Structure formats: structure tokens, C-alpha cells
Amino acid sequence: MNLNPKFPLYLPGVKNTKNENVTILGANLREDETVIAYYVSGGEGLEMKIQKKYVTKNYPTLNEIVKEFLNENSLSEVNRFGISVPGPVLNGKSNPERLGWSLDVEDFKSQFGFSEVYMLNDQEAAAYGIGLLQDSELEDIRSGGHLENGNVAIIAPGNGLGEAGYFFDGKYLRPFATEGGHSEFSPRTNVEVEFYQFLNNLYGIVSWENVLSKAGLFNIYRFLRDVKRHPESDGLSERLNEGDFVQVLYRSAAEDDEMISKIALDTFLEFLAREANSLTLKLKATGGLILAGDIPRIVSNYIDKDKFYQKFKISDKMEAMLQNIPIYLVKSSSTSINGVALYTAYYQD
């Protein structure tokens, strides 16, 4: 995996020969699964040697997974460790709520002897990983410019709602994390006020993550079913309960022409366009918008690109700026783990 020149990432250690042939362990932590991979750096990129997935809830700590991975693969000396976590990282520590783990980079250094340990928010890590994508792994939603012409916004609905960005310093793109997914959701129409009230009864404070995530898509669906009384065909409820909710809903909308599923997905995508609009304006992301995360990737064939663009550019005064912003969809599911490994290899000069 080599750096894509479309993403001039700030990585001061790329040209330093001390970062060549460095062995790196990467970890991407999620509430359903934790992925560990072993890399070797070189040639301004990375080579992944080994990768394995673990069921997160089966392990009391990340340390146990790391120990198992190292033992299984007879890896006695690994130089560096990079960790991508679904939550904020402060002073090398993180306590991601969805995992129930307490993480501290110093613990991993002392237990495993890594010379360096880095921990990044998963969307900041993904921003680095996007720089390793091939052009074929980026789908155009709306072409209109170049990513290096300004800041870039990244919105990634999956298990949660990740939001991040690139700051363009005039030469390089510098990734940074946000916790914007936890900002409050606000309705626009009378039906959305009903939806807000439905969510308010469930959560109290209603965040955008309650709308734009796997749980959020389920919230939209059950609001349509239980409050607006859209009919659910025989067998759909059973399939949704037994299978991957997003996959089943997508297939029922795209292949079975199931009306409630189509309305749910259309509503989700309209909300996604709206929050993408807000993030783009707040970051003044004239360089572009990137749609990432599991849900856009799964439903990419369902997205009406022109309709999404029309919803995205709606603004009181900023439509002229928004209409010229390129929009891309990430088709890879490995950006976070590859990104934190890339950062671990080359961020330090």
C-alpha cells in the first residue's frame, strides 16, 4: 500500500530512513470486533503481512488480544504499536464507552516492550488511511475540484457517527478528529419534529449519532413502522431481526422494492446530506467532502448521487460555495487500521 498523491498528508517521517523496515502492530477497536494486523514499513507505504479479527466482547482487555495475536504468529519483537479507538484520545489515554476498556499507551509500552505506541481516534486514523486508497476505492458522488484546494470534511456513519477533517496548510493535509457526531440533532419539518419527540423519549438528549448510525437507521425504521404506521411485509421483520440490519434493509429496498425500507433509506440519506452540509460549512471544507463508514459503503449502489448533491448544497447563503465542492465515497473498510499503522510508521521525523 503506497501513498496516493491526491492526498498530500503531513507525514514528516516519510523520507527518514530510520522509518524503513520498521515492524508495526496495528489495532482497530470496535464494539463488535477488534482487528489486529502486522505491517512492515517501506517505500513510502506499508506492507500488511498478517491480519486477524477477534470478537471484542470475548476479551476483558485489549492487552489479552495483543498477547494472543503475538503468540499465535510467533512475533517476539515488534517495534511499534498503533491503536485506533472509537472515542476521544487525551494525553495517550482513552476510555471508549462502547468497549468498556481503559487504554493507556504507557501500559502497552511496559507490558510488550514497544518502542513507540500511538493511539488515535478512529476517524482521525481513517483520515490517514484514506491517503493509502487507490483511485478505484474512491467513488465520485460529485466531481468538482481537487482535495488539496482547502480543508476536507469526513463523515462516517457506522456503529456510531464519526466526523473528522483535514486541515489544509497550503501544502499538506493534516488530519484531525472531532466529536461532532454527539452534537444535538435538530428537526426541520413537522414529521421530523415527531421523529425528534420519538427519539427524545428514548434518549433525552438527541444527538446526530442517534440518527446517523446503525442504531439510527433502526430508529428511523421503527419510527416509520410504529409511529407513522407504514406497513411491514410478511417476513421482513424476521429477516431484520435475524440478519445484519443494514444489509437486510438495503436488500429489501434495492431488490425487493419494499416501500418502508426505501423510505427509511431515503430519510437516512437526506439526514446524511444535511449533516454533511453542516460539517462542511463548519470546517469551511472547500477541498471536499468524503463519505466513509460502513453504511454509505453498504448502500452505495442505492444512493441517487444527484439527489444527494441537491440536498447537500441547500443553504441560506452558502450554496455558491457548497455547489463546487467535490464529494467522494470510500469503498474500503480498512482505512482506520491502515491509517493508524501509517501514522505510527511515519508521523515522527
Briefly characterize the structure.
The protein is an alpha/beta fold. The protein has helices at residues 62-72, 105-112, 122-130, 190-203, 214-226, 236-242, 245-254, 259-283, 294-298, 305-312, 319-322, 335-346; strands spanning 23-29, 33-42, 45-55, 80-85, 93-94, 103-104, 116-121, 138-142, 152-157, 161-168, 173-177, 288-291, 327-330.
CATH class of the largest domain: Alpha Beta
Helix count, DSSP H or I runs of 4 or more residues: 12
**Strand element count:** 13
Q: Architecture of the largest domain in CATH?
A: 3-Layer(aba) Sandwich
Q: How widely separated are the two ends?
A: 20 Å
Q: Per DSSP, what share of the residues sits in E-state strands of 2 or more residues?
A: 15-25%
Mean pLDDT: 94
The portion of residues assigned to helices is: 25-40%
- The string of secondary-structure elements, in order, is EEEHEEEHEHEEEEHHHHHEHHHEH
- Strand adjacency order, main sheet: 8-13-12-9-10-11
Q: Measured on Cα atoms, how large is the radius of gyration? A: 21 Å
Q: Give the uncertain stretches in residue-range form.
A: none
Report the oligomer: single chain
Give the CA-based shape: globular
Number of domains: 2
Major sheet: 6 strands, mixed
CATH topology of the largest domain: Hexokinase, domain 1
Structural class of the helix and strand makeup?
alpha/beta
